[in-house]
Amino acid sequence: MSSLTELNRICLDVSAGKLKDPQEIFHAIEAVNPKHYNQKLLIVIEALAAGLLAFLNGATPQVMGCSVVGGLLLMIVRFSLLKRGFFESFAFMCSAFCGSILALLSAKLLFNLSPEQTSLAIMSTSLLLVPGFPFMNGFLDIFKGYVDMGISRIIHAFVLTSAAAIGLIGTVFINSLTIFETL
């Protein structure tokens, strides 16, 4: 957002006549540097958020631990796939599957949690992928009169949500297998 703000200021300066020379405008645009967050810190913060989401839903410390572990893997897979240039929806699907399957395995194999507690661990892990901002901005755009942009953002958020749901369906399928009942 800071980059967009700086670019908006440059546009306002051009329209006000403060910047007229194309070279000056070009140098002003080139001087805009996007700010990036520390990716490792983001992974840890979002994994802790998964544990806290579980806590807010009445989880035990074991469920919170499963959620944190699942959230760590989910975010590592998501950032790794995005860095390698995969589509965002594919990254959401794979990260939802990997994070929730790790939460499932740790809940079943390490702690032998009940089905309700296991579901809570999986749910709180996968909540990291809810695209809240595209949904919210899409509806705000529609209410402001930018219908095309709003519909586009809502469809994008729906595709991301559907991709995460496909990853979770894989985990639910594996959870339904009888392999866990024999252990």
Question: Key terms for this structure?
Answer:
183 residues; mainly alpha; 9 helices
Low-confidence parts lasting 5 or more residues at pLDDT below 50?
Answer: none
Shape: elongated
The count of β-strands is 0
The total count of helices amounts to: 9
User: Could you tell me the mean pLDDT?
Assistant: 91
Tell me briefly what this model is:
The chain has helices at about 1-15, 20-30, 40-55, 60-85, 90-110, 115-125, 130-145, 145-175, 180. The protein has about 180 residues and is mainly alpha-helical.
How is this structure best described in words?
This protein is an all-alpha fold and 183 residues long. The protein has 2 domains: 1-35, no CATH class; 39-182, no CATH class. The chain is 80% helix and 0% strand. It contains 9 helices and no strands. The protein has helices spanning 2-16, 22-30, 39-56, 61-83, 88-110, 115-126, 132-144, 147-176, 179-182. Helix 3 (39-56) runs antiparallel to helix 4 (61-83), helix 5 runs parallel beside helix 8 (147-176) and helix 7 (132-144) runs antiparallel to helix 8 (147-176). It is elongated and about 75 Å long. The mean pLDDT is 91. Residues 1-171 form the Threonine/serine exporter-like N-terminal domain. Its main location: membrane. This is Threonine/serine exporter-like N-terminal domain-containing protein. One of its GO terms (molecular function) is transmembrane transporter activity. Belongs to the ThrE exporter (TC 2.A.79) family.
